[in-house]
Amino acid sequence: MIGYQHSRLLAAVIGALIIHSSVMAYGDGDIQQNKGPVIISSEKELILQKGQNYTIICRANTPVQIKQQEISEDVISLFNMTQRNMPSSDPMYLYETALDLTNVDQLAVGYYACFDNTTKNDSEILNNFVEEPKDNEHVSYIYIYVNGTDNIFAPMREVVISRGGLKVAIECRPTTPDVEVSLHLVFAESESINQSQINFNPKIGFTFDNNLLDVPIAIFSCDFVRGNIEDKKEVIVNKPAE
Question: Which overall architecture, per CATH, does domain 159-238 show?
Fold first, then answer.
């Protein structure tokens, strides 16, 4: 009988602990203390097919919005984005926002950021990437490639301004990671840039230190190859006198 009473007491204690844990996890006070925005995806990068529709979902405990990184070219496209807010489907979060991508093409390639209202200037988190951005308590990122597009490279700036002390990014970004990408110097008054000092990331493009460019103007060619498909795009890098 003593063993039975001890078992009942132990079960009651465990049950109380479980209830207490549930309250701590789901109580209003603790929900507010969860981490920042979270994009709901098992991968930090996705490959979609041209014409596909896809929805990016973000959850958070403060109001959030989702935006694509700045598109630098004005290109006619059927690609469209629609943002909508909805009740959160996860009790751990108070807010849920969706960005519907419709009829994706090369314009859909790039980073998407879900960020809260502490971000006063969204261009700071959506523009001029020189390295892969990191998630933090105020913003979450996902990168999207698109396969089967008419072009095998994403939109890029045709003129880049190189300023002192900063890295230069030439946005030679492929539409899918299997595209081979190379960078060639087409014109410059000197050829002092060593290719070994240039880094490449398919989500960013080619980057190098500003001090490697010792001429006011240089023209580069981004060359893209996938199978028997080849394409290229020239980019002007301007370094104003300081």
Answer: Sandwich (2.60)
Q: How are beta strands 205-209 and 110-116 bridged, if at all?
A: unpaired
CA 191/CA 101 separation, integer angstroms: 43
Give the chain as a DSSP string.
-HHHHHHHHHHHHHHHHHHHHHHHHHSHHHHTTS-S-EE--S-SEEEEETT--EEEEEEESS-EEEEEPPP-S------EEEEEEEE-SSTT-SEEEEEEEES--GGG-EEEEEEETT-S-THHHHS--SS-----SSEEEEEEEEES-SSSB----SEEE--TTSEEEE---BSSTTSEEEEEEEEES-----GGG-EEETTTEEEEEGGG--SSEEEEEEEEEETTEEEEEEEEEE----
Domains 38-147 and 159-238 share a fold: yes
pTM of the model: 0.82
- The pLDDT, as a whole number, for residue 64 is 95
Which of 3.60.150.10, 2.60.40.10, 3.30.2130.10, 3.30.110.40 would CATH assign to domain 38-147?
Answer: 2.60.40.10
pLDDT in tens, 130-142: 999 999 999 999 9
For the chain, domain boundaries: 38-147, 159-238
Q: How far apart are CA 209 and CA 213, in angstroms?
A: 8
- How confident is the model over 160-200, as pLDDT tens digits? 988 776 889 999 999 999 999 999 988 876 665 667 789 99
